[in-house]
Amino acid sequence: MWRLAIRLATFAVTIFCWRLARFATVSSAWSISLMWGGVGLVPLVALAGRRVLDRHPAFGRGGWVTTAVHYLEMTVLGCAALTAVRFGPQHPIVTIPLRRDITAPILLIIGIFVTATVVNLAVQGLGAPFAVALSRKVAAGWLYSRTRNPMVLGCLLFAVVLGFWLQSLHVVVWAIAWLSPAWLILVRIYEERELQLRFGPPYMIYRRQTPFLWPRLRRATPA
């Protein structure tokens, strides 16, 4: 119970940081630092967490290293994303001439997809994202049978389409060229190693059988 209390308290701190990033009045230089510099910290935290896991694998099994890494990563990613939503349209580089009524339904569909991945993880993995409750089983069915990271895929697609909805080339470039590589480095360097330590052979079998990000298309059965 006390572990859950610590996680929830840390989550509350993260929400507070997100609110500051969304509503606090800051300079353009500070906004750029949050938007681009915050994401730049993600690979560094992933590397530091991986180093701890490799030196002390037992720490990974206890979940505390993962909890610390996830909260640090999601705090900076959330602050960067919320800053992008506010700052990107004000400084779009180039305004994308695309009507919002075209991109809004796409955002809704992707949002439903991301929600479905959260439900999938909760039902099959007995856990929740963001280290509030680390999964207790390998979620290998439904959406997770097509790709090992459907939630990451959905979030990255949402960020790119959000840039088009905001009509900001700045946000689109940030999402594709900066946010996506940083997040995928986190998954590759830290999360896959941590899942290997937590679940052992079941995860390794799942990893061999399931694509990393893009779903594998099923081959048509010959008539």
Could you explain how this protein is built, in words?
This protein is an all-alpha fold and 223 residues long. It has one domain: Four Helix Bundle (Hemerythrin (Met), subunit A) (Up-down Bundle). The protein contains eight helices and no strands. The radius of gyration is 18 Å and the shape is globular.
List the keywords.
single chain; 223 residues; mainly alpha; globular
Count of runs of 4 or more consecutive helical residues = 8
The shape is globular
On the 0 to 100 scale, the average pLDDT is 89
Structural class: mainly alpha
From the 3D coordinates, which CATH architecture would you assign?
Up-down Bundle
Q: Whole-number radius of gyration? A: 18 Å
N-to-C terminal Cα separation, in Å?
56 Å
> How much of the polypeptide forms β-strand, as a percent range?
under 5%
- Quaternary form: single chain
